[in-house]
Design goal:
Length: about 180
C-alpha cells in the first residue's frame, strides 16, 4: 500500500470513528447534534459544504475499496539494464541458479539459498549442509566462488557478497553388504 493510500485510510478511519462516536452519543439521548444538523440542512450554503465533504468521503472510500482488487502481483525480481531495455530476473530463478552452481561443488549435500537485492548488486545467503569429512572453510569458499562466478556468467548480475552458513554436516549411513 502506497503512502498516499495509507494517509487516506487513516483519515477515512478517523472520520468513521468520529461519526460512529457521534451516533452512539445521539442514541444515548443527546439531541443537540440533531438540532445542529437540522439547522445545517436548512441553510443552502451549509448543505453544499456537507454535500461536497460527503462526496469526497464516498470517493475516498470507493478508491480504497477498489484499489485492493486492482493490484498487479509483481514477483520479486532483480532488474538488469541493457542497451536494448530492461531484463527482470525473478528471485526464484536466481535461487535455482544458485542450486545449479552448488551441485558443481563437491562436498555440498544440500543448500537453501535466499537472494537479497541491494543498490550495488545482489547478496546471496546460503544455508548449507555439507557431507562428512569435508574441510568446512575450504568447501564454503569454493561454494562462494562457484555461486558468484555462475550468477555473474549466467544472469549478468553483480554479486556483492555470498554468505554461507553451514547448518549441519550430514551423517551418511554406511551401506552394509551381506
Amino acid at each position: 500500500m502506497k503512502l498516499f493510500e495509507r494517509v487516506l485510510l487513516a483519515v477515512y478511519a478517523l472520520v468513521l470513528v468520529a461519526l460512529s462516536l457521534l451516533a452512539l452519543i445521539m442514541a444515548a439521548g443527546w439531541t443537540t447534534p440533531i438540532d445542529y444538523m437540522q439547522y445545517a440542512f436548512n441553510n443552502t450554503n451549509t448543505r453544499w459544504i456537507i454535500g461536497v465533504v460527503s462526496a469526497l468521503l464516498l470517493l475516498i472510500g470507493l478508491n480504497l475499496f477498489f484499489s485492493n482488487f486492482h493490484r498487479k502481483s509483481v514477483l520479486p525480481s532483480v532488474v538488469h539494464h541493457t542497451r536494448l531495455g530492461e531484463v527482470r530476473v525473478s528471485l526464484t530463478a536466481l535461487e535455482n541458479l544458485v542450486h545449479r552452481a552448488s551441485r558443481q561443488v563437491s562436498g555440498v549435500k544440500e543448500i537453501k539459498p535466499r537472494i537479497r537485492p541491494s543498490e550495488e548488486g545482489i547478496i546471496v545467503l546460503i544455508q548449507a549442509v555439507l557431507l562428512p569429512d569435508q574441510n568446512i572453510p575450504e568447501t564454503s569458499q569454493q561454494l562462494q566462488q562457484q555461486v558468484k562466478d555462475y550468477l555473474q556468467q549466467a544472469a549478468g548480475l553483480d554479486v556483492v557478497e555470498v554468505k554461507v552458513m553451514v547448518q549441519n554436516v550430514s551423517h551418511e549411513a554406511k551401506v552394509r553388504v551381506e
